[in-house]
What does this fold into?
Amino acid sequence: MTSNLPTLDVAQELRNDWTRDEIGAIYNSPVLDLIYRAATVHRQHHDPQEVQVCTLLSVKTGGCPEDCAYCPQAARYHTNVKVHKLLEVGEVLEAASRAKASGSSRFCMGAAWREVRDNKDFDKVLDMVRGVNAMGMEVCCTLGMLTDSQAQKLKDAGLYAYNHNLDTSEEYYGDIISTRTYDDRLETLGHVRQAGISVCSGGIIGMGESHNDRVGMLHTLATLPEHPESVPVNALVPVEGTPLEDQERVSVWEMVRMIATARIIMPKAMVRLSAGRVRMSTEEQALCFLAGANSIFAGDKLLTTPNPGDDADQQLFQTLNIRPREAFKNESTGQAAVKFEQIPL
Ligand code: SAM
Ligand code: DTB
Ligand code: SF4
It folds into this structure.
């Protein structure tokens, strides 16, 4: 018996000319074939025993002017998130140091901002970036929209990666967010890429989008001039008070389809099993790793919602014989290396 998957050379070169139909055919293929193929591609480009461990910290929480329907930090929704102004540099560096001690190689600082403004708070964030860089961790930020000069300042301070998610397809985007456009998002990603910062961009499933929307988002990512170095796949965490509070949780098979398709079409990217792990069993997470995920967020909190925590993850790594990936492994897409230097303080 042969597989009824459309033929595709698993040892293929990187491609940026995927059609939406080709990606749809992969996404919709029989799930066991899909996992097998993704696992094969994964083993050609990555060590399957290695999983990148990233720690997230919300450095400025809540009170955001945007209307992202999924987000507990939008000021207009009545959620239990407490607004907190930008943290002090010292407390952020202490958190980064704890994250490093517990095995994280990447530290990602998130701010509930629409965009970065050239003010004292941005100067503080630049100091945080310098400090985390000096600890020998990959430092990442997710601060909203950036201009080209702000991206350059972050790069000069030692920023390794910038997270800015497309979240969903261009067609569905307007149903989820009205306060900025898909093109705004793509423009910031262009500034990040231009500054030579590693690009982290993915999305969320379980927001009421169709399978075609999921394929559409993957198509946009895989046809960027260069693939993102990291692709986070989040399952919606439905939070009380947000417009999406009553969304049904996605099944593991939907996560597996997204992860496996991302792995096949962007073979060199780190595919991150992101929000939603707290609801998953060891077996479900193992399926996601088999399907090509090779990165997670660690710690007992994401930005504002729960995450499994270090003890559970230590157990997970032991059970599955996986080990944390070291910092600064060349994660270039193969199309243009992200040149990175550790900057002495
Ligand atoms: N304000 C910045 C921005 O929107 O780019 C950075 C922080 S924002 C919270 C980062 C990402 O978190 C969002 O793009 C979204 O993908 C993810 N996110 C937020 N709330 C979520 C939720 N309830 N479930 C899953 N992912 C979520
Ligand atoms: C990403 O793709 N997922 C993370 C990170 N990038 C910033 C955020 C998940 C947030 C989940 C909801 C919360 O904890 O507030
Ligand atoms: Fe604000 Fe980011 Fe949340 Fe949107 S996702 S409301 S921009 S913090």
